[in-house]
Description:
Organism: Halobacterium litoreum
Pathway: Amino-acid degradation; L-histidine degradation into L-glutamate; N-formimidoyl-L-glutamate from L-histidine: step 3/3
Keywords: Cytoplasm, Histidine metabolism, Hydrolase, Iron, Metal-binding, Zinc
Bound molecules: N-(iminomethyl)-L-glutamic acid, fe (iii) ion
CATH architecture of the largest domain: Alpha-Beta Barrel
Cofactor: Zn(2+); Fe(3+)
Amino acid sequence: MSDLQTVVHGASELVVGPASDGGLRAYDDGAVAVVDGDVAMVGPSDDVRREYPAENADSGIDASGQTVLPGFVDPHTHALFAGDRSDEFAAKLRGKPYQEILAEGGGILRTVGAVREASDEQLVANLTAQLDEMLEHGTTTAEVKTGYGLDTETELRMLDAIEAAAADHPVDVVGTFMGAHATPDGRDPADYVDEVIEDQIPRAAEQGVAEFCDVFCEEDVFTVEQSRRILEAGREHGLAPKIHAEEFTRLGSAQLAAELDAVSADHLLHANSDDARALAESGVTPVLLPGTAFALGEDYADPEQFRNAGAPVALATDLNPNCYSQSMGFVLALACNGMRMAPADALLGATAHAARAIDRGDGTGTLREGTAADLAIVDGPSHVHVPYNFGVNSVDAVLKDGAVVAG
Ligand code: NIG
Ligand code: FE
């Protein structure tokens, strides 16, 4: 007979996940019982407590006045980096464009320099610190990209660091190889793309940490054709495609994502309704990153066109030195206040739909019988309070596989 671990009960609202009509399924005065790390039952507190008396549990958690959510899923981060780019923040505020900073060897390329110089231990410590902060903010599953090595040796070191940091951390980490993040060392991009395809991708795939291959398809970075070759090569080696699409310029990268049946297309600041339809038809999850638009002073993406096309919108932090936030709660505030998303849609975007964007659409980001008991207990009587009460960390406690890991 299995052990009853935890019963969280009395929550003003307990969010389960998407309802069959696409809305949010939730219980008032809800409870969740955890057995062996998994959700054994969710429902109204009275029903759950009858079946699973809190007195029999290792721990009973009274969540009255609070809201229980599935732990946040952050499906797009560059959380592993080194160095400090706060001076670029000041330069951007004075009006210097992101791409100009990159063209001068700053931005991504500057972080590449710092990562190449960092020791393996330093890389693991840096990522661990970021994961700690994410967990405190309610994230229980996160994607982490490489892309600050931009040579085979350092890209593989990044993957090793992702594996090592993840091994000792409650956050579930999903690795993405992104050797095509920029062209390093003043090299010819065509020549660098060949290296990514012929050397980096096979070695990264063999190393086994990455599940996805991502590319920054952008003017003066990688063309649609180069991106296609890179993503096809990734797929041949078992890495499913993701793409940084239509961020500063509309190049046709969203259409490429649709054509390749990518797992996700991310950013999409300049995507139009044709792109949205193409993504929806191919089952590609659009990932919107309002923190990036906020940090760059750009116009937000338009979530409405994806919704109208029938593509469930996912949200992510894009945590990186240009968009420095670990907080999915802050992303929800931007999604609502900046992109005018309904709080329920934003919450689904940060949980169940985010899970789809990293191929975890099997239950991650939801709380129902049999899913991992990954949850965040937040202050406030409903999920609406997370974006409504912006600028604070509403997360009071985080449970991973039923065990309290933060708060
Ligand atoms: O998703 N757009 C490209 N890559 C990152 C930024 C990385 C950086 O500036 O270090 C992004 O925003
Ligand atoms: Fe990114």
